[in-house]
TrEMBL record, chain A:
Protein's organism: Priapulus caudatus
Name of the protein: SUMO-activating enzyme subunit 1
InterPro entries the UniProt entry points to: ThiF/MoeB/HesA (IPR045886), ThiF_NAD_FAD-bd (IPR000594), Ubiquitin-activating_enz (IPR035985), UBQ/SUMO-activ_enz_E1-like (IPR000011)
Assembly: Heterodimer of SAE1 and UBA2/SAE2. The heterodimer corresponds to the two domains that are encoded on a single polypeptide chain in ubiquitin-activating enzyme E1. Interacts with UBE2I.
Annotated metabolic or biological route of this protein: Protein modification; protein sumoylation
From TrEMBL, chain B:
Organism: Priapulus caudatus
Biased amino acid composition, Polar residues: 562-582
Gene: LOC106807070
UniProt KW Zinc keyword: yes
Protein name: SUMO-activating enzyme subunit
Family the UniProt entry places it in: Belongs to the ubiquitin-activating E1 family.
Residue ranges annotated for the THIF-type NAD/FAD binding fold domain, each copy included: 10-441
Keyword Secreted: no
Record keywords: ATP-binding, Metal-binding, Nucleotide-binding, Ubl conjugation pathway, Zinc
Amino acid sequence: MLENKEIHISEDEAALYDRQIRLWGLDAQKRLRGSRILVIGMRGLGAEICKNVVLAGVKSVTLMDHTNVEKDDETSQFLVQRTDEGKNRAECSLDRTQQLNPMVHVYKDTESVAAKPDEFFHNFEVVCATCCTTQEMIRINNVCHSRGIKFFAGDVFGYYGYMFADLNDHEYLEEVHHVVSTGYGAKKQKIPDSKMAKRNSRFITLQDVLDFDWASTKGKMLMNKTPETYFISLVLLRFRSEQVLHNAQLTKEEKQKKVLGLKNTVMEEIGISDSIVSDKFVSYCMGELSPVCAILGGVLSQEIIKAVSAKDMPHNNFFFFDGVDGKGLVDCIGTYE
Amino acid sequence: MANVEQREFAGPEEIRAAKLLVVGAGGIGCELLKNLVLTGFRYIEVIDLDTIDVSNLNRQFLFRKQHVGKSKAVVARESVQALNPDAKIIAHHSSIFEKTYGRDFFKKFNVVLNALDNRAARNHVNRMCLNVDVPLVESGTAGYLGQVTVIKKGITECYECQPKATQKTYPGCTIRNTPSEPIHCIVWAKHLFNQLFGEEDPDQDVSPDTADPEAAGDAGQEALASDGVTGGVERSSTREWAKSCDWDPVKLFNKLFRDDIKYLLSMANLWQHRRPPTPLDWGNLPDSVPGSSTSAQDSDLLEDQRMWSAKMCGQMFGRSVNTLKERLKTKVAEDKEHGYLIWDKDDDPSLDFVTAAAGIRSHIFGIAQKTRFDVRSMAGNIIPAIATTNAVIAGLIVMELLKVLCGNYSKCKTVYLVRQPKSKKKLLVPCELVKPNPACPVCSEKHEVTVRLNCETTTVKTLEEKVLKDALTMVAPDVEIEDGKGTILISSEEGETEGNHGKFLKDFGIGHDSRLKCDDFFQDFEVVVNIMQSEDLERGVEFELIGNVAQLKAKMDAKAASGSTPRNGQPNGTAETTSANSDVIVDDEEDIEIEEEEVEEDEMEKDEEEGAGDKMLRKRKAENLEKDLGSKRPRVEPDQSDDDLIVL
């Protein structure tokens, strides 16, 4: 990952990417330029991620979604038109995504991720799954993990959102700051300087995270320190698996009631006390709120950029946003160390 | 319990009915407009005076290549309108300082959202919002960092409640005599540009400084006596001299980089503990590149990232001088009085000139040389900017807006985006809003500031331009002396007080403890300026602004305690003062704030601004922070943000 690929940045590209090259350097930009990204799920969060990575200047982005544009997309999906209702999400997002940066190859894939063989994922440096069920995420994550493909997952549930990353064994460069002395005698001066240092960060799979034993000594110790949004996300992922999250047949109240019921089931299953998560969240967890998509999409995209450019310490392994209290937390979940 | 229940967030009706003003359609503005329309807002006015540049396109996603050169506000409106044809979006390609946007304009909005890149405009919008009591959501980004806060009259701090740190300045003698860092050479080269082609400023002298207290000897004088042709003292002005030799590059070069350096060498005290400089001769410039390795590595770099040899610097110096000279002559022919060039980081000859001159000077003093790429950042104060940070901040703005809109101020927060979680896992750090500062010169009942200056040497024009307009960001001030007679010192009406410009403050009986009533009718902003007479301001510093009386008192007490010794050799610019002179490198589009190395333990630092910025950073007292931040406060570490902001 760290070896420099044979990629040339033209002067046109240098002008376009000037402000970010000044931030992360030319080498990082070259690595970005060589990366192929798969984004699964083209709702609000998927749209934000596509926008950010296309603007950053990767090699290619594939938009994947087999579902159709709904009325709800009006409030968060800015890559489709209002007139696209009923048409495929990936198909309809293609044009606007491409317009964001003509130097990036933008592809669509209108098949369901469930229909894709494992080999399909080998074509990418990064796979980012949104709007997937837990089972789908685990499968894709395992394929990626075994091949050293960087895997990300994320979802927005109303005012809440989470991001998960599995970068396997990730090597990266980090700028280390130190002070150098110049001059001599009484006029010796200290000038801040920096150099690049090689670092390493080890990640675990989503399966390992979910297998974490909350009843263990470590688990009991961590239970109260773990962001509430983690447990809320588990409940809402279960809600999605049961295919009711986007079920238009149900009223808001019916959905909320269903979520509350699921909360008790999920908490019991993983063996944590029901009181860890307050019931308040059910009033704030429906739909995809545009500002929450922007916040989560911004953080997640920056993690993708970090991962492919092999520069800077990644967030290992979750980021949570709770729009009700305004907190954005990074936590490492699922390890016993 | 009497309860009208306070809702957490605004509902769909409030969102549909709200009228919003977005000030700025740049990095944050584009993201913000998208979020607002998607969230369901139906009435938005957006104002920006800027036009689209190619370097905006990596993040200002409402713009495309074919839009380069067009109005940001107009194109942003067109792009975002497609998301909801029912929304009413009005674009103003204009400056928020225009008289059209007065009280009546601001009054019609429920909330104003700032997406700005400079402090003057932030101050102005802050004052206008306070005037008409409209809540303001303020924001800024710099590299990976960002922040959002809410300003509501009487409930929270206003934008100007805490004095902002100014840009780092460098002592004149360091720039002129003893540079030790690359930035010293770059600042010197920019001064040289102004001396040769720009607006001449006596504070930007580039010749050896014979009054350097450190030289403290007569070596320089001796040298001058023995060698009449060298030295910077005898010539009337660099410009006059350059003109007399028609900006001959060879003569300029040998004077600046050979003779002046020889003169500096004669000030022997300076070099007792320093590496002495090496004069260079035009005819004999080395062609090797300092610290450069194989040419194979060079091919990996951008053209601008290649280091120039001294010889190459000489060639570029000569070429750019010739181009700039011709431009200057054209300008002077057009307008004799105001015919001068303005340095611009995006203008090739201007950048070549500074890169070359700074490179040669670095070579002379044995300082690490910078490439054209780096010089553009350092001299142009570019704040790097990325889409992801702007997206996060624009999202957070809407989260705060939804609380403001239903009056839920107790839940509004200042939120910081940091680079790595520092305390309690927080990447987004919410902090309680701070109450208004009772001594704030802008939002408190009593608007007073103290200015320390020398009435004997300060002109009325300096007071107006540098103190009132620059430091206090007034637009068109009227100034009356509180001398019992109500003498008008400055009038905003044209033709009334221009005669006073060249006179000194003492000529109007202004001295220690004089009070000047300053009134800006347009901003509806009034402030009393207390004069503190001072003859011991640091060299080259024209005045110091002291935020409020409490700070002034503390300062005077400290002085009394130290036996009222003059502050010799003390570093300039403590946190509470603003020295408004000097090497403030400002680019309207993109400038930067520089953090001091030493940071007080109790302060939380935060930088500002998308792609441009502010020459400010906010320093915030520890007690203002949310309690649960614990003892380890999240601080944007100076070393880290230095990295983000380009080391200066």
